[in-house]
Amino acid sequence: MNFFSRTVAERTSSGQRQSIQDNNYVAHAYSRAGDGLAGVIVTDQDYPVRVVFSLLNKILEEFATKVTKATWEAKANEGRRTGKAALCEFPQLNEYIVKYQDPKQADTIMKVQQELDETKIILVSSNTTANTVGAGQCAEWRRRPPTTAARPVARRHDADHPHVLLPSPLN
């Protein structure tokens, strides 16, 4: 995994993002323009690409503010010279790893999309229930006899209101 990650990072041009698949894993790399700082995240094939690159951007931005360029360049040179990984202290990386285990909780857009999907399910469920209940009530109303006897309506001429329909008197 280290060799794969290092190779992908070295072959990613400055200012570029790329994803390379190897068996069941995908290495997502981003090399920042200007300072040459690059990051690689290896995920399974199902992890959302947009979330990976969002995370890479956050990590590289924070790393660049917390660790000086001289420090990480010296560690990179040491790693090339010895052939072993020379690590910079960056404890925030562990927090990101934990937070981004579930991309729906870590990424704002995915979180909103999940909430919208859940709301849509609830609305569809409520609408189906209302339609079912409503259909039952309509059938009940059709079967129910009228509660009041229908009174015939006849046109009676009233001097004050000649166009008003008045009910006929009950016999």
Structural features, described:
The protein is of the alpha+beta class and 171 residues long. It folds into two domains: 2-101, Beta-Lactamase; 108-135. It is 52% helix and 15% strand. It is built from six helices and five strands. Strands 1-2-3 form a three-stranded antiparallel sheet. It is elongated, with a radius of gyration of 35 Å.
Order of helices and strands: HEEEHHHHHEE
Report the portion of residues in β strands. 15-25%
CATH H level of the largest domain: which superfamily?
Longin domain
- The averaged pLDDT comes out at 78
Question: How are the strands of the biggest sheet laid out side by side?
Answer: 1-2-3
The total of beta strands comes to: 5
The low-pLDDT segments are none
Category by helix and strand content: alpha+beta
- How far do the termini sit from each other? 98 Å
Topology record:
Layout: H1 2-10, E1 17-22, E2 25-31, E3 38-44, H2 49-66, H3 69-82, H4 92-99, H5 103-106, H6 108-143, E4 153-155, E5 165-167
Antiparallel strand pairs: 1-2, 2-3, 4-5
